[in-house]
Amino acid sequence: MLSSMIKSSIMSSSRTQLNAAATNRLSSIQRHLSTSQSTAKVERLTVFGAGLMGAGIAQIGAQSGLKVILSDVTDKALENGLNIISKSLTRVAKKKSPDDIEGFTSKILQNIETTTDAGKAVQEADLVVEAIIESIKVKRDLFGFLDTKAKADCIFATNTSSLSVKEIAESCGKERREKFAGLHFFNPVPAMKLVEIIKTPETSNSTYESLREVTLRMGKSPVTCNDTPGFIVNRLLVPYLLESIRMVERGDATPEDIDTAMELGAGYPMGPFKLLDFVGLDTTSYIAQGWREKAAAGAISKELVEPIGLLEKLVKEGKMGRKSGQGFYNVSELPMLK
Questions:
Q1: pLDDT at residue 2 is higher than 90
Q2: Among 64, 71, 159, 161, which one carries the catalytic annotation?
Q3: Residue of 71, 88, 162, 184 marked active site
Q4: In 18, 129, 168, 323, which residue has its Cα 20 to 30 A from 257's Cα atom?
Q5: Per the database record, which ranges form the 3-hydroxyacyl-CoA dehydrogenase NAD binding domain (predicted)?
């Protein structure tokens, strides 16, 4: 009897110790998960590039209540960026605050500062978004410099539409590469709901969640993609645009008829040639050139991005589309492209 009582007591004590140990392990795991998966909330945004894209990103950041710094290399570029934002906000105000357009615009502009000092621009930033020229060298040079100036927990994001996010991120140290991703907005940024969040193999979950949270706060609809050529939209869109040009080059149909067919037959809001003129023929050509390098490495089919004589001819003639006034169309004859 005594031996049974002793045995029972030992077993009870062992169960208590095991339960305590399990509780401690669970608590430790929960603390670890809580720390490792915590999402840093973005309050301060710095945008590099005061062109149409960068200005749009700065605008929606300011509209969502973020403190924004817009940076570029010249005061003239920054002045142009602020003009773009002011005109866009005026259009927004006519819908949201028709009785106080000036007050609405002024309140949002108060959230935006400008500077040509890149180092100063990122000192307090929680998130840096780059929207500069589509050159991997220039982007790498910028991020390599910013890596030494920004806070350790600052997230870096590139708005590239065609370059490898991983290759751009390699300009930074290992710890920053965990906080590096692609954040691809679409033009015009204030109107387009979509944003692609591109994860590299090194992008941490907490970085991804922070980017998802801030894009939702901006009123966008984020989608996620791995770091592959063209991501989602352009991987499907660019080959479609290039094949449209090949159809015209072969004499299969006119740009006008192809646009009408895709608008009325496929329900697209804008046919491929209107879209090409809107995006810029030079931009499309540049993307295709970059993809040919990827094709040579086996990352994408070579047939999709073979050079097109008609496209290169128009670019050489300075017929870029909307930005030059002439592309496949005379832009003055198409109000939607003005």
A1: no
A2: 161
A3: 184
A4: 323
A5: 45-228
